[in-house]
Amino acid sequence: MNTSWFLVIVAGIIEVLWAVGLKHSDDFISWSATILLIYFSFVVLIKATQKLPVATVYAVFTGIGTAGTVLVEILLFGEAFSGTKLFFILLLLLGVIGLKLVTPPSDEKEGGV
Is the distance from CB of 72 to CB of 24 less than 8 angstroms? Predict the structure, then answer.
């Protein structure tokens, strides 16, 4: 796996953390940590877009964030689980994997600037 895709995954994991932080922050320290996580996730995401198409990177980033946030809420915070949620998470992950598979590997973006 190349470095740019690794950065997208890291940014997605950080997104899960700040999304959970948005829901559960209730004091200055937790809000500050959440804001820092938002900042770092986008710094890492921007770095990934230097070598990968922005639309693909953003779709994968939000897919990881959405699926990860739902799973964390179910596993750690007792959110209700349903087969329908699982189906749509799997469908989302299938789309993310598909985007990664059809994105051509390159050292420079097409139509470089």
Answer: no
In this predicted structure, the answer to whether residue 39 has a pLDDT above a threshold of 60 is yes
Instruction: Please state, in angstroms and rounded to a whole number, the distance separating the CA atoms of residues 67 and 10.
Output: 14
Tokens for 105, please give them.
Answer: 């590997």
Question: Which DSSP symbol is given to 52?
Answer: S
Q: Which two tokens stand for residue 101?
A: 């598979």
Domain-wise residue ranges, the chain: 3-102
What are the tens digits of pLDDT across the range 48-103? 999 988 988 988 898 899 889 988 999 998 889 889 988 988 898 888 888 878 87
Q: DSSP code of 3?
A: H
SS3 per residue for the chain? CCHHHHHHHHHHHHHHHHHHHHHHCCCHHHHHHHHHHHHHHHHHHHHHCCCCCHHHHHHHHHHHHHHHHHHHHHHHHCCCCCHHHHHHHHHHHHHHHHHHHHCCCCCCCCCCC
> pLDDT above 90 covers what percent of the chain?
47
Q: How many residues are listed for the chain in this entry?
A: 113
